[in-house]
Design brief:
Elements: E1 2-7, H1 13-26, E2 30-35, H2 43-46, H3 56-59, H4 62-76, E3 102-104, E4 107-111, H5 124-136, E5 143-148, H6 154-157, E6 166-171, H7 175-190, E7 194-203, H8 206-218, E8 223-228, H9 231-239, H10 246-261
Parallel strand pairs: 1-5, 1-6, 2-4, 2-5, 6-7, 7-8
Antiparallel strand pairs: 3-4
Bound molecules: adenosine-5'-triphosphate and magnesium ion.
Magnesium ion binds near residues 13, 14, 37 and 148.
Length: about 270
């Protein structure tokens, strides 16, 4: 089961990924978090890891190599974008060199790559790598993959959703966030990925949550659950620390219940 969490910049994707990972792990699931956001580098801290794992991009020879492979692929018309380790038809995280994943308890983190320098070029190679990795990634029956997507909808254009089972969009209280959710619903259906619905995040009243639910309903988007604005989460976010809020964890638990009740997780 591979779930992707997407949404507008700053809507709370990484926070939601972390809360879901914490809750799934608590219930005995193994969780593989895939950091597919090339801009932000704080996810490992939210998940409680001191250091990020080495990016997959380094494993496959860096961005230039991916770009070269892409050119060869497009030049020859053959799909040769299966890069080094990823050239195998199937990939398991345990097959990766240890420095390329972080692991604690039942949670593992893999990161695709980050933009570090000015004029480094576009992020397409990382999109290709994320797509190939997720396509070839094989998971155990008691394992759930949660992907932290880059902000916006470009990942759909890069085909990352082709092997995602369930797309969830995080929505905060803004018109842009709602509009983006509508686009995500459409693009997920175009990509033949099952669109689960929205997680409403950072709202500070039930009235606002209900209003957002109505707005989403008008866009034919179901609400999977709501995570209210919690001061502890905001403070942890500012400090670059793991979110720790009992109320938020209960809200995340209700969301996990809803996801598991869909019966698509195989357990
Ligand atoms: N439910 C919440 N209550 C309070 N603060 C929150 C909540 N969810 C997220 N935040 C805060 O909002 C900010 C943005 O959250 P987060 O980094 O998870 O968003 P994001 O969508 O991953 O952002 P980006 O697009 O930059 O990757 C952070 O400071 C985080 O701590
Ligand atoms: Mg983020």
């Amino acid at each position: 089961m591979k779930i992707s969490i997407c949404g507008k910049g700053g809507s709370g994707k990484s926070t939601v990924v972390t809360l879901l990972a914490q809750e799934l792990s608590r219930r005995g699931w193994r969780v593989l978090v895939v950091d597919s956001d090339e801009s932000n580098s704080g996810l490992h801290r939210l998940l409680g890891f001191e250091q990020p794992p080495r990016p997959l991009l380094e494993l496959v020879g860096g961005k230039k190599n991916v770009q070269r492979e892409l050119r060869t692929k497009f030049g020859s018309g053959e799909d040769r974008s299966g890069l080094s380790v990823l050239a195998r038809p199937e990939v398991r995280v345990a097959d990766l060199p240890a420095e390329h994943f972080a692991e604690r308890d039942r949670t593992r983190l893999v990161t695709v790559g980050k933009i570090h320098q000015a004029l480094e070029g576009c992020a397409c190679p990382m999109g290709v790598l994320a797509r190939e990795f997720l396509k070839k990634l094989r998971t155990a029956d008691d394992e759930i993959v949660v992907v932290d997507m880059e902000a916006g909808i470009e990942h759909f254009g890069r085909g990352i959703e082709t092997s995602i089972d369930a797309v969830i969009v995080v929505v905060e209280a803004s018109f842009e966030s709602l509009e983006l959710a509508g686009k995500v619903r459409q693009l997920a259906s175009d990509a033949s990925a099952s669109f689960i619905g929205a997680i409403v995040n950072k709202v500070d009243s039930q009235e606002l949550a209900s209003r957002l639910a109505r707005e989403l309903q008008a866009r034919e988007i179901a609400v999977v659950g709501t995570i209210y604005h919690h001061e502890e989460i905001a403070a942890a976010g500012l400090a670059g620390e793991a979110p720790s809020s009992e109320a938020a964890q209960q809200e995340a638990a209700a969301i996990v219940d809803a996801l598991l009740a869909r019966g698509s997780t195989g357990r």
